[in-house]
Design goal:
The protein has 248 residues and is α/β, with parallel strands linked by helices. 33% of the residues lie in helices and 18% in strands. The strands form three sheets. It has a six-stranded mixed β-sheet with strand order 2-7-1-8-9-10, covered by helices on one side. Strands 3-6 form a two-stranded antiparallel ribbon. A two-stranded antiparallel ribbon has the order 4-5. A hairpin with a 4-residue loop joins strand 4 (112-113) and strand 5.
């Protein structure tokens, strides 16, 4: 199954929503975070939960922590270009402010383009407080002091590192293939390479950047999440369990 395929079936989604219900606040938006490694399928999973919630009548919005990355220009100024996606590459203050403000009024959420590989002001959205706000991404791993302390619940998507690498390479190839007809794409710079070379490049980026980030930072959210969703090699959910280590 492609990484763009279903992240969970109906009964699993129902069980997840039932398990999360006690975390829903008595009033105001239910702010739900989804985190996990790069290419774990966070966006797909967020979409599945959103559709399930919408089917039950809840007004749901999805936002992404990628929008709170510093721009490529700013990262270059700070010497952080090779640390993109690591904690220091995000504007945590702006992210925390947005998650606080959405509980009482409209908020403009910035957005990121995976095609241009940069924050894109044209994609920003101004949202009124929904019934459920799902925020997914990598910057939700500091529950004591950072944005995750502003969440009502946190889901961690877990998978074997070998599967995560395969999904990342698959995603990299999709962007590379799409860039053939899009010279504005960040991946257009790799179109002169053949597919084996692109696969080798993707694996190098995975090992030197994304796997390092996972082991040093992202996985720290797993014992703090309210639910851990486990995926198998085909991206299907193979287990969902409340996290006994998470704070009540």
């Amino acid at each position: 199954m492609s990484s763009t395929g279903p992240a969970a079936d109906g009964p699993t989604l129902a069980a997840i929503l039932q398990a999360l219900e006690p975390r829903r606040p008595a009033k105001g938006p239910f702010v739900l975070g989804i985190t996990g490694a790069v290419a774990a399928g966070k966006s797909v999973f967020a979409g599945q939960l959103s559709r399930a919630l919408s089917a039950s009548g809840a007004k749901t919005q999805i936002v992404h922590t990628d929008g709170f990355l510093m721009t490529n220009t700013r990262l270059a100024e700070l010497g952080l270009t090779d640390r993109k996606g690591f904690p220091e590459s995000y504007d945590h203050t702006a992210l925390a402010a947005a998650l606080t403000a959405i509980r009482t009024g409209p908020v403009t959420f910035p957005a990121y383009s995976h095609t241009t590989y940069d924050v894109d002001p044209a994609l920003a959205r101004r949202l009124d407080p929904p019934d459920v706000l799902i925020i997914e991404g990598l910057a939700l791993r500091r529950p004591e002091t950072g944005p995750a302390s502003l969440l009502d619940a946190l889901i961690y998507i877990d998978a074997e590192e070998t599967d995560l690498e395969a999904w990342y390479v698959e995603r990299f190839l999709r962007f590379w293939e799409a860039a053939e007809d899009d010279p504005g794409s960040f991946y257009a710079r790799f179109r002169h390479m053949d597919q084996p070379a692109v696969i080798q490049l993707a694996r190098m980026v995975w090992t030197e950047v994304n796997l390092k980030n996972l082991r040093e930072h992202i996985v720290a959210a797993r014992p703090l999440a309210d639910l851990v969703v486990r995926k198998g090699p085909d991206h299907a959910v193979v287990g969902v369990a409340p996290n006994p280590q998470a704070a009540s």
